[in-house]
């Protein structure tokens, strides 16, 4: 299907998503996926790639929000305790904008990316 073949209904069915690299969030080598959770049964979540500097949709782990629950067995070895704590702290700092984006209250990816706060050890 080509982009010109989409109808207005098709566009409404598309879910916004963004892959955030360390240039956006400040956590070295980490890629975080954020997508729409509206109308989906899994609830609010982000995905963290287990591959450094690249999002892999088949090799990642999920962090649920707002509980910050994740399955420890799914986390790659290179994501050490310090890096994982940075990710969790970053989620806490950005919880409102993540919530707004995932629920569709904020539906512009460009504005979402502008509102993301980078991880900062001093904000934790």
Verbal overview:
- This protein has 124 residues and is an alpha+beta fold.
- It has one domain (17-123).
- It has helices at 8-13, 22-25, 81-93, 95-103, 109-115, and strands at 17-20, 32-35, 45-49, 60-64.
- It has a four-stranded antiparallel sheet.
- Mean pLDDT is 85; it is low at 5-15.
Brief account:
The protein is α+β, with helices and mostly antiparallel strands. It has helices at 8-13, 22-25, 81-93, 95-103, 109-115; strands at 17-20, 32-35, 45-49, 60-64.
| Alpha-beta classification | alpha+beta
Radius of gyration: 15 Å
Strand content: 5-15%
Distance N to C terminus:
46 Å
* Topology order in helix (H) and strand (E) letters: HEHEEEHHH
- Helical residue percent band: 25-40%
The DSSP helix count reads 5
The shape, in one word, is globular
The overall pLDDT, averaged over residues, is 85
Count the strands? 4
* Biggest beta sheet summary: 4 strands, antiparallel
Domain module count: 1
